[in-house]
C-alpha cells in the first residue's frame, strides 16, 4: 500500500498553522486568547442579552397577536357573508312563493267544491208586466197676441 505524500504535506501544513495560532494566543493574557478579547467578549455577551430581551418581547407580541387573530377568525366565522345573505333571501323568497301557491291552490279547490255542491237555482217565475197609465201632458195656454211694432209717422 502506498501513501500519498500530498495529503501528508497538507496535514503537516495545517498542523504548523495551528501551532502558530496557539503560540500567538499564548503570548496574550496567558489564558489562551489575545489581549483585548475580554472587553470584546463582554460586549458580545451584552449584545446577546439585548437580543434575547428583544426576542422575548417579540414573542410576547406575537402571542398576543395570535390570540387576537383567533378571536377575529371566530367572529368572522359567525358573520354572514354576501353569499350567505343571498342564499337566505333566495330561500325566503322560495318559501314565500310556495306558501302563496299553496294558498291559491286551496282557495281554488274550495271554490270548485262550493260550485259543485251548490244546488241548481230554480227557474224564476214569470213576472207580470206593469203597465203605467199617465194622464196626457198638459198643453200650455195660448199666448196673447204679440203687440205690433209701431210704424213711424211719415
TrEMBL record:
Top-level division of the source organism's lineage: Bacteria
Protein keywords: Coiled coil, Membrane, Transmembrane, Transmembrane helix
UniProt feature coiled coil, ranges: 41-68
Transmembrane segments: 85-110
Name by which UniProt lists this protein: DUF1515 domain-containing protein
Organism expressing this protein natively: Falsiroseomonas oleicola
